[in-house]
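Teaching note: in complex prediction, the entire set of molecules is handled at once rather than each chain in isolation. The prompt given to students was simply: 'Predict the structure of this complex.' The entities are:
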Amino acid sequence: MTASTTGAVQTRKRRRRTNARQNLIGWLFVGPFGIVFLALLVLPICYALYLSLYQKTLMAGTTFAGFDNYLKAFDDPSFLKGVWFVIRFSLVLIPIQMIISLAIALILDEVTSRFARFSRLMIFLPYAIPTVIGALMWGFLYSRNFGPIADVFGAFGAAGPDLLSTNMIFYGLLNVVTWQWAGYYMIILYAALQGIDPTLYEAARIDGASRWQIIFRIKIRLLTPALVLILVFALIGTLQFFNEPKIIQQLAAGAIPDDFTPNMYAYQQAFTLANSNYSSTISFALGAVVFICVYVFMLATRKRGNFMS
Amino acid sequence: MTATNIERGRARRKPRHIPLHLVLAALVIYFLIPFWWVIVNSSKDSAALFGGTSALWFAPDINYVENFKQLFTYNGGLYARWLANSALYAFAGGIGATVLSVLAGYGFAKYSFVGRRAGFSILLGAVMVPATALVIPTFILFSRAGLTDTVWSVILPTLLNPFGVFLVNLYARDSVPDELLDAARVDGAGEFRTFVKVALPLLRPVIVTVLLLSVVQSWNNYFLPLAMLVDNRLFPVTVGIGLWQSTASTYGAAGTNLWSIIILGSLVSIIPLIIAFLSLQRYWRGGLTVGSLK
Amino acid sequence: MKTKQVLAASLALLLTGAIAACSGDDSGGGGGQDKPTNCTNTIPKPDAPVVTLWAWYPNTQLVVDNFNKAHDDVQVCWTNAGAGGDEYDKFQTAITAGKGAPDVVMLEADRIATFQIQKALVDLTDKGYQDVKANFSEGAWKDLSVGSGVYGAPIDGGPMGMIYRKDVFDKYKITPPTTWAEYETAAQKVKDAGGPLFGDFPANQPAYVTALLYQNGAQPFTYDPANKGEISIKLNDDASKKVLDYWAGLVKKGLVGKQDQFTPEYIAGVIGGKYGTYLSAAWAPGYLQGAGVGKGADAKVWATAPLPQWDPANPVSVNWGGSAFSVTSQAKDPALAAKVAFGVYADDASLKDGWENQIIFPLNLKVLKDPAFIDAKVGFFDGQQANKEVYVPAANAYKGMTYTPIGQYFYTAFTKQIAAINDGSKTGSEAADALQEDVVKYATEQGLTVK
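The expected output is the structure of the full assembly:
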């Protein structure tokens, strides 16, 4: 916070002197990215918006439709169910993920053995695995005929849950995503914890604070910006859920229909049903939903000092 | 930066924490089980894979050599090509994205130019645009431009990394003092020279982090190449394995034991990134603190 | 120290790239569209005109080589663009983009109408169809026809039968059921004795369930492009409801499984003796063996019998799967492409390789009448003369089906309804009604007139 404000003050001072030069050089630095940004973000978004205003059918071809596609999308059970699913999934997933990664980060901050360092790396490792492959591995592990989960339950004489069935797929996916990302979030939190000045703990201890008080009053409080950051990442990631269900669909087509998540639905519309107009509508509507969700969240947490201040 | 302080603080207490270690051990087992599974099962032929041998232990005959041979010869050695493609996309996309991010992040942090504020706000918004929601519009756009089914269709979209710009900007604001830059300018260095000689070395941790994150992102990318590519000789390994998986799930694939090579292929494809992560850990750990500590 | 680590990591990544680059030859990506450079096969006669082909059967390499060796005036450049759904998605994309499709594409018979309605396929009636018409049965041609046009050259078919486990049947003292009523009785008997599931009702195989509907005389779709945009959809008639209610009943009573097929889970169940029967087509043994079935403890337990019937007095043969080569409307030289479509996989050597390795069940009458094929003792079935006893009669009795021009959507919708039956949220009849409503709605949206 302080560093950046002094920076800004300094730049303001210099501005008067070398305005034109600053302009030119600043744009030279930002320009290349700006071009990519325009070409690969702004342009596709505008194009999607344009496409979403047209309608394409087998018999009639392409016709102008105005906002009909949007009216259709927000009345389309496939799209709405998909949106509802990803929202529900986020609401369950994100707290679980955050609690797990926070707990691990706190443990690792506490324990400094060689084994702890080893664990830190191992827990992080799934992040390096392509989601496609993570989903594939778990798909196998869920097998009731030859997977280890079935063995564990079998040892107690119980039938294991079928995590690929319609009723359980929610939990099956929950586990895959948690496995993949908890380590990454843990590392962010851990790094933040390591950055906290240890004299704070000493001072608190002298004041008679218990270990739990230190954890809650100091550590977690100071972690708030990092937690907000994670939350935003997780929210963006989950709302656009695609890779994991798309891969696991090959093992559980009954439980994961083509309109399972909004992104899968958009994919189906674009590639299977050749309806790029409606697909754009869904992409655009999804983008809007994500943007609004995140923006509302950012506003709500603004006072707490979030990472974009 | 404060690592030594922490170590000193810790050294004084040195508790054993046995229950915490047990928790950690359980966690490590959970996180490693899929890896163990893939190592064990890539040694099996299909009969052993599905024929009731334990999923977490080796079958009596170890088939690594046979499976390796099959992996690298099936479909005329296509798998090796996929690995090469993945490497190409990851490096070209990752390096490109990093260069752009560093330039722009530094520009936003250190120069006040017309449109800087507006530009930065737009950038913040862009961080929130779901990348996959962009894939289909980009695909449609590219297909009109005749760019689909080329290496460019995969590399170009990965160049866009607003979060990278954001990270670099944040880091540069904090870690590259204006005084240092001014000093260099006073010594007569040009802006670009100042950037290369003064700022870049200071930005090293964040550069490695952004590079690593973007390389991982492109290496692991699935949706984008899946949408863009038709020719399977251009596939990255993720899409290729997905292709095999769906082939194995279609009746027309008679006569080939695809599942074994799918599993071995998965194992081989994750090794490079694991090595990269393990050997570069001190960099990315430093870089990841950016943004979380404000 | 730090530099060393960076070096190590970069080396590891580069090395994989280098190793990979060595083993694959580089024909570069993208670039020139005119001359196909990305063939999986090597073209022996590079001066001849080239026809591009998408196909996914495992012996395609051999089949294409056979063709190229035998022809001087045309050469085939083959790519595997994915199996089934993946390939259709790619083809669909190419149709939308107006470019990128191959000259000849392998399609399952049930998808032809879907692409025909988008004008993506070329009518072959005047492009060599007459010359080979006599080589295939009427049913085979009907499957590839839309209205009066013929849009594919037959490769293989999937006459259906009932694969079963002799060990299970012996243990529970049952004989192969010949009617669906007997099938249920036998299933109940096995269950009561504590035996395995008798069969399976997979949500991910709507084409298979559609075949079961046909078997009871359902006629889900009638479509002829001659009647501009008119289609009749009858997915909830009594015949369909009866079949779906029957299966919903079996699922509810726990007599059959509800596992997706062609998945590792299903294969493991088949190997492990979890299912007494596998209702499938003639290509199934090849698929199962590739997946490792019949190689371990379950060797020599497999046998096959005709598919159970609704009315044994009027048996109906049905078909599941089977493919054709279609010429796409993006073909540069449709006549030449048609020559390839009819010529590839039509020579004796290729056909023999196909059926001997059980990759395909050929439809070419030359083979279907060949005693070597008819009398062949199939190893997977422990020497049973499966073709003679089950599949050839089924293929000969097959009359062909009319497929829907909105196949992609229909199958997605059907998968959802089968899943609903399986999780108990709908009865068979309810699922049929919901399916009818869903598909009619889509057809109407697409501008078709639903009668």
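Point out the following to students. Residues 1-12 of chain B have pLDDT under 50 and may be disordered. The radius of gyration of chain B is 24 Å.
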